[in-house]
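Researcher: I'd like a structural prediction for the single chain below. Treat it as a standalone chain; there are no partners to consider.
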Amino acid sequence: MNRLKDLYSRSVEGKAQIVLVDGVVASGKTELLHVFGEQVDESGGLMLTAVGSRVEHTVAFDVLTQLFLNLGLPAETRQTVAALLSECAVTAGAVGAVCRETMLRLSRGLCEVLLGLCGRQPVVIGVDDVQHVDEPSLEVLLYLVRRLRAGRLMVILNEWTGPRPAHPAFRAELLRQPNCHRIQLQLLSTEGVLEALAERLDTATAARLAPGYHTVSGGNPLLLQGLIEDSAIGLPDGVSTLSTEPLPDESFRQAVFACLYRWDDATIDVARGLAVLGHIATPPLVGRLVGLATERVRQSVDTLTKSGLLDDGWFRHPTVHCVVMDSLGMEHRVRLRLAAAGLLHDSGQPAADVAQHLLAAGQVGESWAVTVLQEAAAHGLAEDRLEFAQECLELALRECEDSVQRAALTMTLARLKWRNQPSAAARYYTPLRHALVAGHLDQSHGPVLIRNLVWHGRDAEASEVYRWMTRPGASLDPTVAANLALMRTWLEPGRPSSGVLPYPAPGPEAEISRRVHGGVVISSAFASVQEGISGERPVEQAEQVLASSTLTDDSLMTVCTALYALIFAERPDKAKPWCQIFLGQARARRATSWEAVLSGIRAEAALYQGDLTDAEVWSRRALELLPAHNWGIFLGLPLAVLLRAQTGQGRFDEAARTLRRRVPESMYRTRVGVLYLYARGRYFLATKRLQAALADFRTCGALMADWQMDSPVLAPWRSDSAWTQVQLGEVEEARALVQEQLELPAAAGPRVRGMSLRVLAQTHEPQERVPLLREAVELLQTTGDALELLLALADLSAAHRALGDQNMSRMLEARVVRLAKECGAEEAGRWWAGGPDSAEGEDGEEERPTDVLVLLSDAERRVAELAARGHTNRQISRRLYITVSTVEQHLTRVYRKLNVTRRADLPLWLKEEDELEAPQLVTADGMALPRADS
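Model: Treating it as a single chain, here is the predicted structure.
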């Protein structure tokens, strides 16, 4: 501005001045001209302005008309100029162009007009966007600046600095003039942005915010102004401030649009080419996309960078990228996207990059694109980019005409949807079944197709597919044969009368697969567990399979069967950490269905350990992950665990609500239905609906016998039926049934045998029960199943009470309460501790509280526990670092509170099997001393 003022002063003195102001788009040229014009008007000068237009650059004399038909000029001046321009227009209409003689007359006439104006006052001619001025106007302007060197005239021409000058001859001639000056405008520095912000903020705040606003705007004044408008925050007192973080919104977008449409067509094309190609854009690639030479692209990129819209070859801010993309019409965008996909494909770019453009176009264009989309979907699945993979598959399917390729695409899409929404995949199974039978779908997909058909209760279709795959003469890949065997382990479609699935025919390939394929190994291990084969071999096999498995759609059933093998082998402690590992993989792979199934198995493991709280948490988690309609027949698995957990906790109202949840009818034709029926029978038994319980247990037995899987490892229905019959008074029948269970090979394990002995004891007289129940307790203690151990201890407590051994009974009651608290069945634990026959004590008196710990202080409890174990007073004093007298005082209070008179009457309370930790000794000044045992 100071430079312009100085040059204006010279022109006022009669020395005409020419100023060429150039700079990138939106660098402030127009604002500079506008502000300077206001100052010229205020000083008494005459400011004549015109603007070149890209749209009107072919209209002859457009800029001269803007300048000299200005309403600020005298009327006679305007009439003179209008006559000159009219003569030029008439001549152009007659001969088709403005002849040299006419141009000369016009130039001389305007020269005289200017001389007259300059004689009255200083004149400033300002032309913005010279690069868009029509050629005739430029020729006349050049004539005027050459002739009028002595006069009160100043000419300011604003030109956009682009890759190439729009009028190189005009520019060269202009700069040759001795009175021509050039001013180059640069973008704002951080300090310049600070000054702009200081108009709204205090200097310290402006200095803090300036770097962020400069980064987003690039120092482009137009973009900065839009950013400031978007980031303004109104305060209650009417004052405004700015957001600490720039918030580019509509004003910023409009500023970007304004910049975009000031460029030449080539630069706009380059900007759009960059936006379409994204971060993989290179000048050669952009040039091929938009039809420009590589050097021309580089020039445009340089221009865009100098304008502040690009930074290091890419858009400075995502909003700029969005605006450039929005400037494309739909047809133009589709055309560019398809062209970009073709270019990337031809140059060997990754399929995922090519697919992005095909997806954006919504079309494939050429046949090769379907294969690219298929490959991109495979990569997307491998990287767990599920939405991207699904979009690729759906577009490819929409355009694919090849039957084999279409079947493969459909299967991949069905697998993908099954990960998170199995019900959405169901509609693909009929065409996939037909494709498999027609030979269009590879046989490796058969086992998963069968699994998913049975999942949705379509066992007849699953049976059809299985029989077709195992038909005589069919050649099965060893891995496929192994997976089919694994499917049969879990997915029985029904009784033999409705078509049970046979195993694949054995052969050399099957023998190979048995040795190398985890599916066959775990099928064998599961069968061993089910048949009651003892030893660690099945457990080792299961863990070997789990250790060598990575969770995928194909391996899911292998992993799940291995986990169930560990649980049914009475090693839920080993299953739980493996569950956690595979749950982590499922979450990482964003596979909700996998996570839900594994959460259900995790709940089963907790149930087998008697941890009812944990079992409920994980079963609810499984049911929350997948809505009921997505579970298919497998809804019965988490529901069965939840039902058993609620029943075990004595929360029968909640269990009843769980039971009211609708399950698929087809579920009862699978072993899932057996587990659900067993859980329902346990609920009926606990709520004294004995006939209903007995019906469910007997149905379990009938189904398991029909399917040749009658194993108490899976569902010990005989012992529960026997317990029900005991309560119905059918003692002999109950004894025979439980004896039958004990004779089964699968009943040799400590858990099943312990459960069986517990029930068998109820069929004998009280004096005969104690040895059986003691053995049951010993066995169940080794399994880690706290709930079953609790039940056995409760029965043993009741047996001792019936025999008059109140001390032993109370001791066992205390342990029952402790176990009940540990396994989440505290509410039911007090009822169990009192025995199943009554909730009241003898003689109708209220039962004595069993949790007597609340009566004692911590010090009294420690003394009492050691005394109950047989320690003398002196031994207790040494153990607890207190005097013998203090021990005696504590014991006196303990006897009084517990209403006992001697040491032998003390029961074993909480932690009766744990060693007490000696208290920490401290000196008088609070320093800790080492314990005696250290």
